[in-house]
Fold this sequence. Notes:
By secondary structure, the protein is an all-alpha fold. It has helices at 12-32, 35-40, 56-60, 64-75.
Amino acid sequence: MTLSCGMHVNNPKTQTRLQELVEILDRDESRFGSALIAYGWPGSQPLPGFAGRTAMNPIQDGRDSDIRDYIDAVNAGIHA
């Protein structure tokens, strides 16, 4: 099975990236107040400090910890 983004769902690497994405979305849902809004965020908004890239780009590159750190900083009031 292939998702519309070209990812093969049964691929172990894809499974890992999807799990990382879900963990990030679950972590960020309270900030957005809605799961729907949180689920749209990773691919929709360029992030400061990420060279105009969205959260989805580092996640796809296996750098989900960078996004977790960014979310923690935002939640702590470090980034606006």
